[in-house]
Specification:
49% of the residues lie in helices and 13% in strands. The protein has three helices and two strands, in the order H-H-E-E-H. The longest helix has 17 residues.
Length: 75
């Protein structure tokens, strides 16, 4: 009567989503993260599927600049 559909896990995480989440932290948190980073790459891990996303310090600095520019444009 009813068709069967296999169930499987799929996480929608991506590098783009990780960057958007970092930007949501705001300029202060991103600045703190940059200052406290002990390596050239900070690794964020998806809490659902455990996929690691390495984020180089240069990318963190770029995201911080974007957040600051967006905040400045909003005034």
């Amino acid at each position: 009567i009813l068709d069967r559909t296999p169930v499987r896990f799929h996480c929608g995480c991506s590098r783009d989503r990780v960057e958007r989440a970092l930007k949501l932290l705001g300029a202060g948190e991103l600045r703190d993260l940059l200052e406290q980073a002990r390596t050239e790459t900070v690794t964020l891990t998806c809490e659902f599927c455990r996929t690691p996303y390495p984020v180089p310090r240069d990318d963190l600095a770029r995201l911080l600049l974007e957040v600051e520019e967006e905040r400045g444009a909003g005034n």
